[in-house]
């Protein structure tokens, strides 16, 4: 099985993309298809014996059959965004001209000439929609938005309601322009990430000079130079120089970080005021910024339940709408009379029922939110995970590195021979990557030669064993000594206790102390206020775990201590019985629980690669207060989903912006219409669609009250004004 990704051009209709995706999936040997019209790409998963060129030709034939002009091609650098922007401005100018042309028609008094101008204005504005509708009917695909708009506007022309026919198409095309602008804006939030990844780097040559080369050509161990103000192109270790880094693009952290020789620096960071020489640690494709871009670009492939629902909804919705319109326009008059009245109502129903804004606004909201989160140093691997956050009840924390700083200090060294305890501890933590082991190794001064260490082995959940100078050594938890029946004193210390044995005999212990993160108490308190239940799972002793829990306000019954990795899994399963559970951790031993939890979050800056791979969401730093931002983002999305459905289900919408009211009066005057209600309804639907697209990009808070009238107050935090939207006679509400 292999996976390929191709670029997509000239495919903007979500309904068409769903049909194309369905048809491609039916091809022999296809295992998976995902078309993303917002990022303009298609991801195919198929059997190895299928030829790439042949498959590409086939999917292009399918695409052109459903939506002529659609092109699938090998991914490469293009200027699609500039073309899309140019097309947008061209459309804008064209429709402004058509609107002026439409206004000019009112200056002609002759009814014959007026009809001619109306007809020309109608054809100029709606010609492409009419053509698409006719073309799709010829292909047997007639139940789409083009058909709805065409039949509704042509019916209005037949009834002599020329203003309504032209107004329907005019507002519909304006809505299309705004949707295109919204999609383009959302694409920018993602494409801006690409600017964080330099395409070239200065590689050190054999003669000592530095030559500019493609970053992708660098190998592990190569030496590169990064000058002042330049972006670090690849993950590396500083070999020479010291400076400060701006890592705000990766983590959202505004304060600069000081770095020196021996420190690891991440790609995407901006170098400060000194030249640095770096040794490459990872391949270009495995570097931090490349992984970020890959995660964000592929996040939209994992669709939320709301997006999947809308895809199915659009498939069955249009036939139902058309069927009901036929019932209203042709069956009702047989029993109730007044054919023209019922026919006009059927046409108006077709206009009102067009679901375009809803179909595009839901996936667009998730797409935009994932890009927004990435700018705050949060990587969300799929829209389904973002949606699932709104159902979380329990939040389970790993202790070390998550609630605490994981920067340990040695508090006490105890033993009959302190010098021997220090030597054995230094040797035992020689290869350690654990924060406790690193702290012990760095804070004990004792010369150790690597050749004296053999058979080094990590004992999961207990500690490490090794052979040092021909003797068996163990460093780790008291649990191991008890299981091995090694005599040792009872120790009650506030901190993590590391026992040391030599040849199965107790030699002493070291007490190390960690510090609680300063933002942890406030974060836990706010999460509890929001209704979440916090838990702690840790391998540390009961005294340490409960002391941390007490300082954070976590109930003792929610603290699970002395856990081995497999026991963490069992404890998480018990917690999950009371509701959907989120787990947040950073270590290798967290990988199983991260994978098992409903939502798994790893702390990226300190987290292991295994933990990051197993998680659904990645924090690029160790600031747990980002949980609050994440849940706020999830809540905003849920509120937006409810608001979109209310907008679509409403029969009447009024807007408190004075300018919009004035526009209504202008339209009323220009139309000089006795049947003002039809265009007035079109006008309301138009602004309902604009509202849904506009709300996607505003930081907002919702105040929703539902009774006989549904009132939503949207408070925009970025723009000081606020406005209210009221919906009346909403189906299904009392």
From TrEMBL:
UniProt-listed SUPFAM superfamilies: Calcium ATPase, transduction domain A, Calcium ATPase, transmembrane domain M, HAD-like, HMA, heavy metal-associated domain
Location in the cell: Cell membrane; Membrane
Signal sequence, renumbered to the chain: none
Name of the protein in its database record: ATPase P
NCBIfam families on file: ATPase-IB2_Cd, ATPase-IB_hvy, ATPase_P-type
UniProt similarity note: Belongs to the cation transport ATPase (P-type) (TC 3.A.3) family. Type IB subfamily.
Molecular function terms, GO-annotated: ATP binding; ATP hydrolysis activity; ATPase-coupled monoatomic cation transmembrane transporter activity; cadmium ion transmembrane transporter activity; metal ion binding
Assigned keywords, A-Z: ATP-binding, Cell membrane, Membrane, Metal-binding, Nucleotide-binding, Translocase, Transmembrane, Transmembrane helix
Origin species: Fusobacterium necrophorum subsp. funduliforme B35
TM regions (residue ranges): 88-109, 115-134, 316-340, 346-367
GO annotations of cellular component type: plasma membrane
